[in-house]
Design a protein that fits this description.
Distance between the termini: 25 Å
Number of strands: 2
Helix content: 40-55%
Strand content: 5-15%
Shape: elongated
Structural class: alpha+beta
Radius of gyration: 13 Å
Number of helices: 3
Number of domains: 1
Strand order of the largest sheet: 1-2
Amino acid sequence: MGHQEGHSERVLRHVQLVADAFAKPLPQIRTLDLACLEGGFTFELALQGAQAVGLEGGKRMLISVNRSRLRSV
C-alpha cells in the first residue's frame, strides 16, 4: 500500500493493519468503524477499495465532519 497525499501515517498504518489481519485485498473487505469521529480511517479504507461504513453519534463530531467534508469538495 503506497502513501496517499494528505493522510497521516497513523491512518495508513491502521489501514495496513486491517489488510494484514484479514489477509485479503482491501476490495474484498467490509468494515464498520463505530465512534469513527471524523471518519479518517473509514474514508481511507474506502479510498483503498474496502466497503467501509463509519458511525458517529456525537453531535459535535457530526457538525465537524460536515464542515470538513464541505471544504474538501
